[in-house]
Design a protein that fits this description.
heterodimer, A: mainly beta, about 0% helix, B: mainly beta, four-stranded antiparallel β-sheet, globular
């Protein structure tokens, strides 16, 4: 069983489109995250949710809107896609917000905007 | 602010040779430290982590890392590299205190393995 699963794995879309990436974790964790990995492989947090409540919202364009319908899901919706949004997006989860908890990552969603 | 530096962008070693990947962190208190590995086209897998106690930490796949507070370092080592170890390696620091729980990553070191 995959602990953190995200779909789709690959997504190619045109500029201006709206797209969503779904994420689910079956670990019973309270906290979920979205990280972005840019073309230089740099990983940076975008959002975190704890018990469906937004905790971290880094400097991310408001075209990006996370939605957490329940603790096990954290979806990422992106409006009006731009070329610069091309990246790998990783969903992740941890037991809770306690510092030092292991964060488990999904396999990533490769987004290409053309 | 917390930060993580991985000074080596790309390292090439011969199969069977020893490996050391460097990681330096900046943090005001005792950090939680992690090493993750990312194989090409794959997600991130945890190799090992340091919380407290013994400063030499054993991980999966034969990796180990040593926390040196005086040098603010957490270098990853492996005595004998296998071709399957070729991947991108990320060092990360976890925030202490429980307010956020996220990780701050270094920029990664790409490991290539020569036959």
């Amino acid at each position: 069983d995959t602990a953190v699963s995200q779909t789709p794995k690959y997504l190619v879309t045109q500029m201006g489109n709206d797209k969503s990436i779904k994420c689910e974790q079956n670990l019973g964790h309270d906290t979920m995250y979205w990280y972005k990995q840019d073309s230089k492989k740099f990983l940076k947090i975008m959002f975190s949710y704890n018990n469906k409540e937004l905790i971290i919202n880094e400097t991310v364009p408001n075209r990006f809107s996370p939605k957490s319908p329940d603790k096990a899901h954290l979806n990422l919706h992106i409006n009006s896609l731009e070329l610069g949004d091309s990246a790998v997006y990783f969903c992740a989860s941890s037991q809770d917000l306690t510092g030092g908890n292991t964060i488990y990552f999904g396999e990533g969603s490769w987004l290409t905007v053309v | 602010a917390q930060s993580v530096t991985q000074p080596d962008i790309h390292i090439t070693v011969s199969e069977g040779a020893s490996l050391e990947l460097r990681c330096n962190y900046s943090y005001g208190a005792t950090p939680y430290l992690f090493w993750y590995v990312q194989s090409p086209g794959q997600g991130l897998q945890l190799l090992l982590k340091y919380f407290s106690g013994d400063t030499l930490v054993q991980g999966i796949k034969g990796f180990e890392a040593e926390f040196k507070r005086s040098q603010s370092s957490f270098n990853l080592r492996k005595p004998s590299v296998h071709w399957s170890d070729a991947a991108e390696y990320f060092c990360a620091v976890g925030t202490l205190g429980g307010s956020q729980g996220n990780l701050i990553f270094g920029k990664g070191t790409k490991l290539s393995v020569k036959p």
